[in-house]
Amino acid sequence: MSGFGELLRSLRKQNKVTQRQLATLVGIDFTYISKIESGTMDPPAEDKIIRMAEVLRVEPEELILAAKKVPTTFQKLITENSDVPIFLRKASELSPAQWEKIKEIIQGEEEDENK
Questions:
Q1: pTM
Q2: How far apart are CA 74 and CA 71, in angstroms?
Q3: How many angstroms separate the CA atoms of 52 and 57, rounded?
Q4: What is the DSSP string of 34-102?
Q5: What are the tens digits of pLDDT across the range 67-82?
Q6: Does 52 or 74 have the greater pLDDT score?
Q7: Cα–Cα nearest to 15, from 54, 46, 50, 68
Q8: Taking Cα atoms as reference points, which of 57, 86, 90, 52 lies closest to residue 69?
Q9: Between these two residues, 11 and 76, which has the higher pLDDT value?
Q10: How high is the pLDDT of residue 111?
């Protein structure tokens, strides 16, 4: 089973949604849901993943990233901000402590925005 398939199954069961119900709500065949969850099929396109996220009440990016895809919203950010590719090239060299500092900065900014 793939990471995406495991997550999908877990969220689906957590939300008490059958494969058939999810498939109907997303607009795909229910056998495809079964194959995704078992890892025999790749995750669907982003638009279908976004619809799954809506049905399963999770952030779309969570499911898109679990499918090993780059969300369209991230693609736009990466291509429109010249600092992002520079950051991404260096990101693999960051220590856990540096990641923690970045996280603190981001969370601090989110708290400031909510005031």
A1: 0.75
A2: 5
A3: 8
A4: HHHHHTSS----HHHHHHHHHHHTS-HHHHHHHTT---HHHHHHHHH-THHHHHHHHHTT--HHHHHHH
A5: 999 999 888 888 999 9
A6: 52
A7: 54
A8: 52
A9: 11
A10: 62
